[in-house]
Each structure stands twice: as structure tokens, then as C-alpha cells.
From TrEMBL:
Protein name: GHMP kinase N-terminal domain-containing protein
InterPro entries in the cross-refs: Galactokinase, GHMP_kinase_N_dom, Ribosomal_Su5_D2-typ_SF, Ribsml_uS5_D2-typ_fold_subgr
GO terms of molecular function: ATP binding; galactokinase activity
Species annotation: Gottfriedia solisilvae
UniProt entry keywords in alphabetical sequence: Kinase, Transferase
Length: 142
């Protein structure tokens, strides 16, 4: 799925402007895609996150890899790992760690995540989610 298709899917779930982030499965390079129309698509394997702040105290997530789970929602005070929240525990633990380190994460986020990292590439999907979460938090909550 390309960036423009991801943008259309994001709009199906959320009604807000968004930023696009990507971590490559090839070289662990983190980038923010500023303009989808100018993106050259050289990073074929990786994880994309489309994200916007929301005015709630909630984080809402959709993964196209687990779309059947729908939107998973939790508050910024519910950052303990839960079996119910499955893959989002990687994101939750990274947010919890950054809050403990002093980041002022005082409003929620709406996220769409999509990854296509094959197992043999060397960067796991869980590691890519943790790395992207850290970069996104640092970018959004300066």
C-alpha cells in the first residue's frame, strides 16, 4: 500500500490532518514524510504511521495489519500492558517510558499503522513500532 492509499484509509477512521512517519526495515532509518506527493518510495519495507494529535486524553490506534480489531482506544493514564490491547503494548510501554523520562504527553493521538517488514529483514515490527513511537513523541511533544 502506498502513502496516498494510506492517507485515504486514515480519513476513513479519523477526521483530522495528519503527519506521516516511516521506519525502513532495510537500514533502520527514521524519516518523516513531509509531503506524500514528493515521496519517492525508495523505502519498500518498513512501518508507516499516520498520526494527528487529538483534544482528548485518549490514544486511538488502528493497524492495517490487524484491522479486524478495529480502533483500539486507551487513555494516557492506562499505559500498563494488557492482553486485550495486544500489539499496542509496544506503543504503550514506549509512551510510559517517555512520560517517566519527563516528556509532557498531555493530549491524545489518532494513529494508523501499517507495516510490511518481512521476517528476514532484520528490524522486527515490534522494534519499528517502538522506534517510531519514540520519534513521534519527541516530534509532537516538544
Amino acid at each position: 500500500m502506498d502513502v496516498n492509499e494510506l492517507a485515504l484509509v486514515y480519513k476513513r477512521y479519523y477526521d483530522s490532518d495528519y503527519r506521516i512517519f516511516f521506519v525502513s526495515g532495510h537500514d533502520e532509518k527514521l524519516i518523516e514524510i513531509v509531503n506524500a506527493k514528493e515521496y519517492n518510495g525508495n523505502q519498500n519495507f518498513g512501518t508507516y504511521v499516520l498520526i494527528a494529535k487529538n483534544k482528548k486524553n485518549k490514544i486511538r490506534l488502528v493497524s492495517l495489519n490487524y484491522e479486524e480489531l478495529g480502533i483500539i482506544e486507551f487513555s494516557l493514564t492506562e499505559l500498563a500492558g494488557e492482553k486485550l490491547h495486544d500489539w499496542t503494548n509496544y506503543l504503550k510501554s514506549t509512551i510510559r517510558y517517555l512520560k517517566e523520562a519527563g516528556y509532557q504527553i498531555n493530549h491524545g493521538m489518532d494513529l494508523l499503522i501499517c507495516g510490511n517488514i518481512p521476517n528476514e529483514v532484520g528490524l522486527s515490527s515490534s522494534t519499528s513500532i517502538e522506534a517510531l513511537t519514540a520519534v513521534i513523541i519527541k516530534s509532537l511533544y516538544r
